[in-house]
Amino acid sequence: MKTLIQTAALALAATITTSTFANDGATQVHGVPSKTLAEAVANFSEYNQRLAKAVAEAPTPERLQEIHELTYTLQTALEKINEEMDGLTDTLEEIHISSEAQQADEVQEYAADYLKTARTVIK
Q1: Considering the entire predicted model, what is its pTM?
Q2: Which letter does DSSP use for residue 20 in this model?
Q3: What are the residues facing 27 on neighbouring strands?
Q4: Are 43 and 76 in contact (CB under 8 A)?
Q5: pLDDT at 25 over 60
Q6: Using CA atoms, how far apart are residues 117 and 110, in angstroms rounded to an integer?
C-alpha cells in the first residue's frame, strides 16, 4: 500500500513538472521560485513585463496558457514581497517606538534592518 501511494505521488509530481513556459521553453513547477526578497522583486519586475507583452497580443489559446503560467511566478513573487513587507511594517513600528522613547541604540538597530529590506524594493 505504501509503495502504491509513493508511486501515485511520483506520477502526480511528474505530471506537474511537465508544465512549460511558452517564452523560454524551460520546465517549471508552478513558476519560478522567489526564495529571497531580491529574487521576488526581480521576478515580479521581469514577469510583469512578460505579462504586459502577452496581454498586448491576440488572446489565442496558447497566449492565454502563457499568461496562466506567468501568474504562478507573479503570485509566488507577490507572496514573498508581502511577507517581507509585513515584517517591514513591524520593524518601522519598532523604529517609531524606540525613537519616541529616545532609545538611540534600538533606533540604529531597527533602522539598519528596515533600510536593508527597503533598499531591496526601492533603488
Answers
A1: 0.68
A2: B
A3: 20
A4: yes
A5: no
A6: 11
Find cell 536593508 and name the residue. Answer: 116
Closest CA to 45 of 32, 56, 57, 58: 32
What's the pLDDT tens digit per position in 94-104? 999 999 999 99
What's the DSSP call for residue 102? T
What distance, in Å, lies between the first and last C-alpha atoms of the chain? 55
Grid coordinates belonging to 56: 498586448
The arithmetic mean of pLDDT across residues 55-63, rounded, is 95
How many residues does this entry show for the chain?
A: 123
CA distance linking residue 44 with residue 48, whole number of Å: 6
Q: What is the residue type of 94?
A: E
C-alpha cell of 38? Answer: 531580491
Please, is 50 exposed, middle or buried when counting C-beta atoms within 10 Å of its C-beta (0-12, 13-18, 19+)? buried
Asked if 114 and 88 count as a contact pair (C-beta separation under 8 A), the reply is yes
**Domain ranges, ordered by start, for the chain:** 2-121
